[in-house]
Amino acid sequence: MRNGKKTVLVINGPNLNLLGTREPHLYGSETLQDVETAGEQQGTELNANVDFHQSNWEGAIIDRIQQARTDGTDGIVINPGGFTHTSVAIRDALLGVSIPFIELHVANIHAREEWRHHSYFSDKAKAIIVGCGAAGYGYAISHVVKKFPERENVS
User: Fold this and answer.
1) For a designed S-S bond to 30, which of 34, 53, 131, 154 qualifies (C-beta 3.0 to 4.6 A apart)?
2) Which Pfam families does the record match to this protein (predicted)?
């Protein structure tokens, strides 16, 4: 909770900065900026803070997750991109901060290559949203605001 409002952190991993241009037949035409603009508007409507972070670098994502431990974040929505199938380090960071999270994928990873079916996050996520396109972000933000408990501030 920050400034009397529930706070959601939305993290996007590698290549999600290319939403809208990268393989639009899989990921749609909405850009990451479209997703962020809609999320900020949704935050206003829900009386919540919605923060966004995107990085192609694993360490930057880990640093942002660790920062969330003390910045009033009540829940995380993470689209780990390609790190879904490879990053024990991001998984450990999420578990280390003890902030509940939702795993999100714009495309249906289970309808793609076999190696994309495994996730290092699914077994620890409070919810998983897969294949709903950019609308999945709205579903996830709403769920965090309405269903996740407020966290005590940690220093």
Assistant:
1) 34
2) DHquinase_II
Contact 68, 154 (CB under 8 A): no
Does the predicted model carry a pTM greater than 0.85? yes
Give the count of domains, the chain.
1
Domain that holds residue 78: 6-147
Q: Taking the CA atoms of 123, 59, 50 and 75 in sequence, report the sign of the dihedral they define.
A: positive
In a domain, 49, yes or no: yes
Q: What does the pLDDT look like over 82-93, one tens digit per residue?
A: 999 999 999 999
Task: Flag whether 91 is marked binding.
Answer: no
**Residue 79 in marked binding region:** yes
For residue 51, say whether it is annotated as part of any ligand binding site.
Answer: no
According to DSSP, the residues that pair with 149 across neighbouring strands are: none
pLDDT at 155: 65
Query: How does pLDDT run across 12-49, given as a tens digit for each residue?
Result: 999 999 999 987 777 778 999 999 999 999 999 999 99
In a domain, 152, yes or no: no
